[in-house]
Amino acid sequence: MNKSLTLVMALCACALVRAQVIATDNAEHSAYTVNATYNAINGGTGAWDPAGWVAEGWEAGDRPLVKAVSPSLNMGTQVFTTNAAVGGGADSKRKLQSGIPIGSTVTWRMMIDPACSAGEFYLDVRSGQPGSSGQRDMLLLIGEVGANWRVYAKYGGIEMSTLFSTPFTLGERVDGSMTITGLNTWQMTLTPFGGSPSTISGEFRTTDQLVQVLNFSNFGLNGDAYFNNISVNGPAPANQTLTGNLILGDTAFSGASTRNIAYTVMQGTTTLASGSVTASASSSALSIDVPASATGAAELVLDGSSFLKRVVSINLTGSNQAIGNATMQNGDVDGTGEVDAADIDQVIAAFGNMGDNVEDVDVSDEVDAADIDIVIANFGGMDD
Ligand SMILES: [Ca+2]
Ligand SMILES: [Ca+2]
Ligand SMILES: [Ca+2]
Q1: Distance 3 CA to ligand 2 centre (A)
Q2: What's the N-to-C CA distance of the chain in angstroms?
Q3: What pLDDT, in 10s, does the model give residues 262-287?
Q4: CATH: 3.40.50.970, 2.60.120.200, 2.10.77.10, 3.40.250.10. Which one for 20-234?
């Protein structure tokens, strides 16, 4: 059976690289008590995720509540509210430890109580200190009874409001997502629960400032505004890519079968990357992404099928690099880490078998004398 050699390789890189959580807050956390008021949540009382937030009070008199709500609202069972009882201007400020980097995304969910008939709910996004323009307000998301959600910011250098296309509906959960797309630019998407997303983008009202404060507040609402599930995520770290070739020794790949080789990139006991290569030829391209933050000595560990474990020493530089050929020695059919008489016996016992068999060490789709010869030629080989 002759098959054309297709130099196809499936690379299944298990993505260990994820966006970094900077800060989170959730009213369902055990730190919060239903019907309790908090003078600035995460501002000294009620803080449960101090890693990302500053414990700092806010203006006296602001008393955000934690309330139990019906699960039918799709907001969870406990939410933060801007506390309608306080009237116009209740604030629930969250200040981050430092300005969040470009590429970060802030997500949250919100809803205005269906009993409301007037007033406004805000998410005021601010810098840590006033910018060159003398102000700290970077943009203002506005939910107003009787109007669409809108963002007051700069568009083409002009301060104005821009509406989301999705209609604003009382009692409807809306999920927000704001990405810092550049030093002075943002993009925000609002998605009604079960509905279609609406996205707008613009510039911040300040220049050269980083977002550091998220202030959920209301003005004149005659009911509650709910919000919850606040999450601030930094950008995914950059990668360095290791490229090279995986060489499977003494193989022909003249049949249809392939061989799976697992790989890990280790630094000490830390796994920097892992995945597997499905080889359909004696030489397969390797391309492995490792976090760019990892530098120094590391090891690429390869193992699988009838091949001895191969450990390739590499020196991570933080930049892409070619690591050359990683050649794996054949013959360890039973996977003991050594090519010995037991491997020869196993091939002889499978003699004549057709198709995909580990004893078919040259991957010809037939166990024959050539396979016995290969195991004998590699006799004494050991795992790295
Ligand atoms: Ca092995
Ligand atoms: Ca063996
Ligand atoms: Ca064979």
Answers
A1: 29
A2: 35
A3: 999 999 999 999 999 999 999 999 99
A4: 2.60.120.200
